[in-house]
């Protein structure tokens, strides 16, 4: 004789979906994501420290892109258990040079032991996404008007206040300006015939 399986009451299903799914992205209480990659919490890292690490990663990849491009800080955002730092490239990067730009970022990350998660070869909006051993997600993407954006997302960390970045941009700061202007700096190498 077969036993009939009992279905979970609808309220239990709703609670699991409402509470479990949004928390799944933050990892366990210890900060481990279950894949051997640290997500920050067990090391006692807070949002400010994660923001500083993100800044260092973004500064390093920008330093690895040659010739230099002019950039400004994008907005910093916080979420339930993490922080995102951004850099906005103000140098005009022609469509013919965008893949070169992405390749230089990707090569820098590979040389520094980042794992490449995805590469978007879209002709208009190409991007490359990577992750560090400590769980930080980093990306370079081209968006509207061919503007390049760099982002670093922290893993789940302890909540804290987050100060503005201390690294000075290598061009105008655009403080309290949002959205930032479109790319407006010409480069003999990066801009080609654009702009």
UniProtKB/TrEMBL annotation:
Superkingdom in the source lineage: Bacteria
Region (Disordered): 27-50, 161-195
Protein's recorded name: Lipoprotein
Source species of the chain: Streptomyces rubiginosohelvolus
Upper taxonomic lineage: Bacteria, Bacillati, Actinomycetota, Actinomycetes, Kitasatosporales
